[in-house]
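Hi team,

As requested, here is the filled-out complex form for the adenosine-5'-[phenylalaninyl-phosphate] run. I kept the field names the same as last time so the parser does not choke. Let me know if anything looks off before we queue the next batch.

— J.
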Amino acid sequence: LKQEALKNVETLSTLEELNAFRLKYLGKKGVLTSYLKKLKDLPLEEKKQVGTILNELKDLLEEILVKKEQEILFKQEDILPGLDLTLPGRRPVVGGLHPLTQVIKEICEVFGRLGFDMVQGPEVETEYYNFTALNIPEWHPARDMQATFYLKNGSILRTHTSPIQIRTMLERKPPLRIIAPGKVYRCDDDVRHSPMFHQIEGLMVDKEVSFSDLKGVLTYFAKEVFGEKTKVRFRPSYFPFTEPSVEMDISCVICNGKGCRVCSGTGWLEILGAGMVHPEVFKSVNYDVSIWQGFAFGLGIERIAMIKYEIDDIRLFFDNHLYFLESFK
Ligand code: FA5
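And here is what came back:
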């Protein structure tokens, strides 16, 4: 069989002949395949010996066929003048991650190293989770701070990622540490505001969580993402769901070939809101306020990506121009 096959393979001169040969010996119903199938009927010792011989022949034929195929193709060059089979292939265009996805990934990795789990929540929310459970009752003027999109069925598009705090605390028992990235929606539209944008929510609840922990964790995050030399400052602020509340600014200096300059009039840029979880919020999820304490924060991703990549129009993130997206590969 071996001699016959090796003799026949030499005579092959076209791709059709080559395929017919492959089918005859190696195809499903091929000679070699049928011998291999019969192996199981042989006694063990013979099965080993014959099996080895047959498999070696199979490998040998496959190897010869690949070489033969190349030979035939090269010869066809004469038939197809100008066909240069040595030319390298065309590379497929490979995409890259969107700059916002890159920033979200980087931030979640930093918090992941601090033991924060990533969780998600729905974009279509109820007013209860988005406002009421976060200590923003219906009459509260804070509801106007976040211009809301209402849906016909009475639901809303979430205006921030903070409802994920409520959903997670109802699902899990404390202590917990979570980070929750996602899309949020507000009736805003200009170069710094978009009707859809991204936030990352963070929440840590434990028995002894203090304001120093909040400062420590957020300072670590800023240095990891913006560089070791970055300074941070905390300013008093107001959110109904945290008390006390702060906003965190980072120092920012942009350097290029011509020198360095501060990125805003003051050299500070606000990047997030944060604070200690308000007791009313713990009450709405039935956490015992005499045992549990926590801090929460929410940051705007576009704002951070704009600083990091020096982009001054937020709409560039959503226009999907290839020249813009390709510069982040
Ligand atoms: C909040 O949304 C709070 N939920 C943050 C928070 C969470 C505070 C937990 C305390 C504890 P604020 O409305 O300030 O806060 O929005 C947070 C960030 O979202 C802002 O700093 C800003 O960077 C970004 N942001 C707000 N509106 C827009 C918009 N229309 N387009 C792009 N980014 C926006």
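Two things worth flagging: The longest helix spans residues 44-79. The mean pLDDT is 90.

Thanks,
J.
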